[in-house]
Write a structure and sequence with these properties.
Its main location: membrane. InterPro entries: AmpC-like (IPR050491), Beta-lactam-related (IPR001466), Beta-lactam/transpept-like (IPR012338). This protein is of the alpha+beta class and 405 residues long. The chain is built from nine helices and 20 strands. Helix 2 crosses helix 5. 37% of the residues are buried.
Length: 405
């Protein structure tokens, strides 16, 4: 199996690291490509990747540890640690399950400290009445961990997660030489570039001071050790393991920091230049960890994951690493503000760039909107498309009508 996987991934120019365990407990650890493309330095098993939102699993486990020790409870409200009237009814459980209604910080560049969002933003909905994935929830949880434990997030991570499981390559404070350098793709000039060279995402490094929602660096093997230690009850009791991977009443696919879908649980993550996936079967010992340090098409990424899940069934991948785009011209007049016909009446604005458009959603970071067909536009690094002629927003195959405001 190793040869089949290695040769297929090499043929399809995979760059990253992976760890697999089959239902028979056979394991495969594999690295391909470069951790530093400019200097042709290869990835090794000890190369650290930014695991992005996989970090939420670790933050959730830290919180559950504090709950088991009765240092905090699921019902504790934010007012125990923060001054807020607007979000005074938000509890620990609301933060864990993304049911707090607290807006996303990533699209609010003026926010320098996460507590500011509690004073300058209004809730999307009353706490506990809706579901919205917001990184802010987990940044706040990280602060609560620090307040309660009297340790920094990194020190708590090392003391209560890394040391008990012997994770020698897991940290939120990596050395530069340990890191797989993330690369973004320049769709206009068709080459890889650094984060600081990207016209839209170059300011994202200013948000690196936030943690809890992301910020952990690790290897594929260490992520696997964390997941196994968690499900074996080495970090929290089996009772809390079950609660963590049980969907919340407001979302069938999210528990306490873990995504639950089909027959598996885990999480996926993304940050400019990085993507990560971790899924573990609920009924067998099958596990897939995939870490990448270059921007690729989400369709390519999903095909890689599907192949790794059943390497015998699909030896030929067909999705390109990057979709072909069309440069815009003066006849492409799609600028304006639009509103989706969804439950939140989500609004987005399209602005013109030089060879592409820029799309922005409320409280989300701007991103490219690339033209891929005469009337079809792709939101960069997503599975979302906009059919301008038919006024249809397509998100992971689901069609949502929209109108221009």
């Amino acid at each position: 199996m190793f040869h089949t996987i290695y040769s297929t991934l090499e043929k399809n120019q995979f760059n990253g690291a992976l760890y697999l365990e089959t239902s028979n407990e056979d394991s495969i650890s594999l690295t391909l490509g470069y951790k530093d493309l400019d200097n042709s330095i290869s990835i090794t098993e000890n190369t650290l990747f930014d695991i992005a939102s996989l970090s939420k699993m670790y933050t959730a486990v830290m919180v559950l540890q504090l709950i088991e020790k009765k240092a905090i409870s699921l019902e504790d409200t934010l007012t125990k640690w923060f001054h807020t009237d607007t979000f005074k009814n938000v509890t620990i459980e609301h933060l864990l399950t993304h049911t707090s209604g607290i807006p996303e910080y990533l699209g609010n560049a003026s926010i320098k400290d996460i507590e500011e969002i509690l004073h300058v933003k209004e809730p999307y909905f009353p706490a506990g009445s809706g579901w919205f994935y917001s990184n802010s929830n987990y940044v706040l949880l990280a602060k609560i961990i620090e307040h309660t434990s009297k340790l920094s997030y990194e020190d708590y991570l090392q003391k209560m997660i890394a040391c008990p499981l012997h994770l020698q390559h897991t940290t939120s404070k990596p050395e530069a030489e340990q890191i797989a350098v993330g690369r973004l793709f320049d769709y206009i000039n068709k080459k890889y570039i650094s984060l600081t060279e990207d016209t839209v995402f170059k300011d994202m490094d200013k948000l690196c001071s936030f943690y809890g929602d992301g910020s952990i660096y690790s290897t594929a093997k260490d992520v696997a050790r964390f997941i196994k230690g968690f499900i074996q009850g080495k970090l929290v009791s089996v009772e809390f393991v079950k609660r963590a991977i049980t969907p919340s009443p407001l979302n069938n696919n999210y528990g306490y920091g873990f995504v639950i879908q089909d027959d598996s649980f885990g999480h996926s993550g993304g940050w400019p230049g990085y993507s990560s996936h971790c899924f573990c079967s609920l009924t067998s010992k099958k596990m897939t960890i995939l870490l990448m340090n270059e921007e690729v098409s989400p369709v390519y990424e999903q095909q890689i994951l599907a192949f790794l899940n059943n390497p015998e069934d699909m030896k030929q991948l067909i999705a390109p690493k990057h979709p072909s785009i069309m440069l815009i011209n003066n006849t492409d007049n799609i600028e304006g503000t639009y509103e989706l016909a969804d439950e939140y009446q989500t609004r987005f604005t399209i602005k013109r760039g030089i060879d592409y458009f820029i799309i922005s959603f409320d409280d989300q970071h701007d991103t490219h909107l690339f033209k891929i067909e005469p009337n079809l536009y792709w939101i960069r690094n997503t599975m979302s498309y906009i059919n301008i002629r038919d006024r249809i927003f397509i998100e992971e195959g689901i069609e949502i009508p929209f109108n221009k405001q």
